[in-house]
Design brief:
Layout lengths: L2 H10 L11 E6 L7 H9 L4 E4 L8 E5 L2 E5 L12 E4 L4 E2 L1 H13 L9 E4 L3 E2 L2 H18 L10 H10 L5 H5 L2 H18 L7 H15 L3 E2 L1 H10 L5 E4 L24 H7 L6 E9 L2 E3 L12 H9 L12 E3 L1 E2 H11 L3 E5 L9 E10 L2 E3 L6 H6 L1 E8 L16 H14 L3 E5 L7 E3 L2
Parallel strand pairs: 1-10, 1-11, 2-5, 2-10, 5-7, 6-8, 7-9, 11-15, 14-16, 15-19
Antiparallel strand pairs: 3-4, 12-13, 16-17, 16-18, 19-20
Bound molecules: guanosine-5'-diphosphate (GDP), 6-O-phosphoryl inosine monophosphate (IMO) and magnesium ion.
Magnesium ion (MG) binds next to loops.
Amino acid sequence: MSAKDQKSSNASKKRPRNDVGNKVTVVLGGQWGDEGKGKVVDLLATESDIVCRCQGGNNAGHTVVVEGKEYDFHLLPSGIINSKATSFIGNGVVIHLPGLFEEGDKNEKKGLKDWEKRLVISDRAHIVFDFHQAVDGLQEVQRQAQEGKNIGTTRKGIGPTYSSKASRTGLRICDLLSDFKEFSTRFKLLAQQYQDMFPTLEVDTEAQLKKLQEFAERIRPMVQDGVYFMYEALHGAPKNILVEGANAALLDIDFGTYPFVTSSNCTVGGVCTGLGIPPQNVGDVYGVVKAYTTRVGIGAFPTEQLNDVGELLQTRGHEVGVTTGRKRRCGWLDLVILRYAHMINGFTALALTKLDILDEMDEIKVGVAYKLNGKRIPYFPANMEVLQKVEVEYEKLPGWKSDTSLCRRWDDLPAKAQNYIRFVENHVGVPIKWVGVGKSRECMIQMF
Ligand code: GDP
Ligand code: IMO
Ligand code: MG
């Protein structure tokens, strides 16, 4: 057969078709967390068949307000409110089992029904043990004593659990549900390793194992092979699949303000690694950003306002951490970090939340660039000492001085508020699809 004939014969053979399947819609925090991701997820979840968490643990605190009732979610996807949707906790999430059931029980009292029946948990997710949480606290005390400062973690055991995962000594849900004797041996070894590091750490291993065995039976019906679950979701009938990011870009372990970050990838890459899905299945990526900036915990914050402005934002915005009850630090909107978050995540569009909190301002400042030694820099500094030194260049915009909380359409907004929104859009180079003007579901203006 000639080379030409060979080629045409190959071409005529039936080749497998690359069926991409359904795409997931992703919601990610674009600042230092608490941008209102819960609210945006709730809005989109009403149309979703599956709502997934792909990273983080119960360090997240997502608030959803529906019909005057306020729910807070930490480990459960906020979409659990939608009784028609399945919620999925992927392999990239770290799970504290007592925390999960406490959260479910607490929300059940508020009216959440049958959440256990609607939850699927990946068998590859790592487990946060009580001693991981204790070690989180001990490491903070150690940092304070040795370095004179800590990170201000949520003390939910996130750092220690991801450390165990990376050290290959961690234990996963699949381990808990298979041979309990083997699990117990590895559990004791892991506990002992931490006790060697922290001699004051007390672990009642027998009591812990007894509790874990009980939890094992409670979660057994929810656990599935996560990769296969997602594969079926992507390749079955058309479905709306939503991914709820936790924490945020500037808290990302690789791209955040290291070392004052969390221990997972809260940027778009975490979606693939935390669910076990190919990049071709990532569809729209929505960034959630507050109309100003907040941060909980320690670390550089170039536009922070340690003055009346910061206090006004803190009180008007009720800026108190959902997970730890700490006051959030507040400052002006920083477009440098939004552009940086966009470089990494490639946002399709943004949700600009809490615009209403700026209603009383005479004048609003927006950080538009950073200068180092008097020269503008086009990148976001990796090093904390350098970031502490940047000088922020601001632009001043006039305040609108009127109540926006009842606005429901673009045309209802005062011209100066519209101007603020357009300014942000143009400087980040991403369209703003939603504008938040209040806590509840209906307080969201959809722009297109
Ligand atoms: P998440 O962690 O990103 O889900 O955000 P949090 O729930 O930690 O914090 C956001 C807070 O702002 C919550 O109390 C929300 O109810 C509230 N919130 C969200 N969007 C808006 C908004 O547009 N206006 C006002 N006033 N509050 C909002
Ligand atoms: P949501 O999903 C705000 C911060 C902590 C601390 C640092 C490390 O509600 O936006 P960790 O316990 O993760 O080791 O803490 O990260 N942090 C958050 N801040 N919102 C969050 O989540 C956060 N998750 C972690 O305050 O500074
Ligand atoms: Mg939060």
